[in-house]
Amino acid sequence: MKKKVHIAREKKKGQGTNRVEITGIVMILLGFFVCLSLGGYGMGIVGNLLRNGFYVLFGVASFGAALVLIFTGAVYVLTGHAPNMTRRLVFSLIAVWIILAGYHHHMLPAGSNFSVASFMTYGGMFCGIPVGIIRFLAGNIGTTIILTGLFVIDILLLTHWSVSNGAKKVGEQTEKRIGHVKARIREKQEAYHSARNAAENAGEQYNLTDFIFHKPTIKNIKKDDTEDLPVNVFSPADEKGKPVCGEATAPTVSENAQILLPEDNIDMLEGHKVCEENTNDIKINSKADMPEAEKNNFYSFPPLSLLKEGESSGSLETNAYGKANRLETTLKSFGVNAKIVHVSIGPAVTRYELEPAPGVRVSKIEGLSDDIALQLAATSIRIEAPIPGKSAVGIEIPNAKTAAVSLREVLSSNAFQKGKGKILVALGKDIAGKVVITDLAKMPHLLIAGQTGSGKSVCINTIITSILYHSLPEDVKLILIDPKVVELSIYNGIPHLRTEVVTEPKKAAGILNWAVTEMETRYRSFAEKNVRDINGFNKQNPEMKMPFIVVVIDELADLMMVAKDSVEDAICRLAQKARAAGIHLVVATQRPSVDVITGLIKANIPSRISFAVSSQVDSRTILDKAGAEKLLGKGDMLFNPSGASNPIRIQGAFISDEEVEAVVSYVKEQCIQQDVIVSDETKIDLSEWEPAVSSDSEEPKDELLAEASEWVVDTQRASVSALQRRFRIGYTRAGRLMDTMELMGIVSKADGAKPRTVLVSKGQLKELFPDQIEN
């Protein structure tokens, strides 16, 4: 019996559920029918009646009634029962609907409150009549105040929220926070007083700055999927001028997150060194505590106080996480799924390391560079795909504020102070803020290119100054070639110079030929002593020690215009063979075109530095790949050392003209104070090497010149084709003969299609060639 009753109840319950679902479906269909009717889709007589009736009664709020029908019907169908709504909730929702429709009707122009057209266009009779009466009695402003008050009251009834309770909770939370802050301040004060008392008892001084609150380096960090994102932050020198080469993380970054050096393969490059230790505790050396060779009696390294300290610029990139999120969103909008796994904040740019999802092509990310720059409002971006040694793609975005890297920061680092290289050169700081030092003796030659104002001259001054701070005059000699005359002339008089600064292009070709001869002489000495290079020779024969020679050419393009053949041949020979002889080249040019940086020069100078260039073609000329056209200028460079697969982005160290002058003056002054006179015997007599420079005016004259000139004067036919047929020579030689006759004044200049005119007689020609022309 009980079983039958249970079955009957289940059957009755199922019938009730079906009835509710049917009701819901009917409501949904009715709601769609009303929507289509209101939209004027031609739903017949019934649809037109509904449309006119709803518009007259409710106006534009009629669509709200249709949506309520659809929503209620969906609840009936999905839940199987009517929605559990209290009477107050229903009336509150209806009131909100009426008030919003009343707001809309309130926008009706004055004088048309009670017309049928206004009811259908605005709030309908249901809302329009009450609003029209209120508007007539209270005016426009009063109606707005009344409707707003009714809306606020209805919201309070609908949400059960109390203004007094809300204010009370806000006050409690504020008081609680203030109590926490007071407790922390009290703890700090107690710790400071106890530490100060202990220090006074011990006779020491205690610093209040050990107890101050430290602000985070990165602000505006959102807690999202990038919460544990490792960030490597570059910090400029602090107020004491000490370089910072360490790590800092945002407050929400995991403490166990590993801070990775963006260029993990840097340490593998020969002759390249990166400061990995924190340099906060490095003392700035003075002249008294700089290392000196025991046998050197006069030269002391310049003090670092001659160089300016780096200016602190605070946090360089305060919204790294925000840009990371925008970068991920931008890539996702183009169908590229990638996750940012590491952020490196450098002096000039911030690199975001992306880990693409499986199946994402690297070329697709590279093709979105312009779109990414647009979305992030960046001037230009550079994409390194992939990062060497990592399964990640690097996107480098310029910082809103660039921090200058002073040469003093780099020279005071442990990497430079304790470096054992023969010719250490300070370049600057990489994208992670790490000091970059390289040994010119292991490069072994360096090619520098970049457009005007990109930082080439500053880089050359940095290289020379690094040598003055690290190498003794007896260990390293300099040969400076400055066709621009004004760039390197300031170094005249320093003891490191092998000869005075060369400013004339023809003399520059001669000094390069001297360097070739010096290289050959050294190799013969190596062969006699049975050694392979300069290091072995100096170790075996300390009394005959040979210095390293660094040849610096400030503008190669000017030399190539004046004496291309001799300059190119000398540079190629030095680049091919001079490394073991201790002669190294530093060649700079502002025009990295193929007629200046020829294939022979590029093939023999493996290490390159490219500053900002104007086009991708110039970038490929200097680096054999694109990228330099995206650089920012002002010292932003790509350094591609010998053996590296990809170039390293560096913010070059800056040294001003005043600093260069101060360092050079110090070096010259100490030589004068120590009565050091550089012997003239060590200087190079350039006059002996000037004839080595080829010139068009010094070329030997063609043996046919006299005979050809005589034939031209006799026949009065001054043309290249006539010379070709008469003497059976090629066009090039015939053209050269005609040009020589023009220079000698025998024939006139070419005038388009008109023939040349013979300008001399047979007697005048005999005066030009007295021994070759007979009477």
Automatic annotation (TrEMBL):
The chain crosses the membrane at residues 20-42, 54-77, 89-107, 119-138, 145-163. One of its GO terms (molecular function) is DNA binding. It is a multi-pass membrane protein. The keyword Transmembrane helix applies. InterPro entries: AAA+_ATPase (IPR003593), FtsK/SpoIIIE/SftA (IPR050206), FtsK_4TM (IPR025199), FtsK_alpha (IPR041027), FtsK_dom (IPR002543), Ftsk_gamma (IPR018541), P-loop_NTPase (IPR027417), WH-like_DNA-bd_sf (IPR036388). It comes from the Bacteria. GO terms for cellular component: plasma membrane. Pfam families: FtsK_4TM, FtsK_alpha, FtsK_gamma, FtsK_SpoIIIE. SUPFAM superfamilies: P-loop containing nucleoside triphosphate hydrolases (SSF52540), Winged helix' DNA-binding domain (SSF46785). GO terms for biological process: cell division; chromosome segregation. The keyword Membrane applies. Keywords: ATP-binding, Cell cycle, Cell division, Cell membrane, Chromosome partition, DNA-binding, Membrane, Nucleotide-binding, Transmembrane, Transmembrane helix. Essential cell division protein that coordinates cell division and chromosome segregation. The N-terminus is involved in assembly of the cell-division machinery. The C-terminus functions as a DNA motor that moves dsDNA in an ATP-dependent manner towards the dif recombination site, which is located within the replication terminus region. Required for activation of the Xer recombinase, allowing activation of chromosome unlinking by recombination. Belongs to the FtsK/SpoIIIE/SftA family. Homohexamer. Forms a ring that surrounds DNA. This is FtsK/SpoIIIE family protein. It comes from Dialister invisus DSM 15470. The lineage of its organism: Bacteria, Bacillati, Bacillota, Negativicutes, Veillonellales.
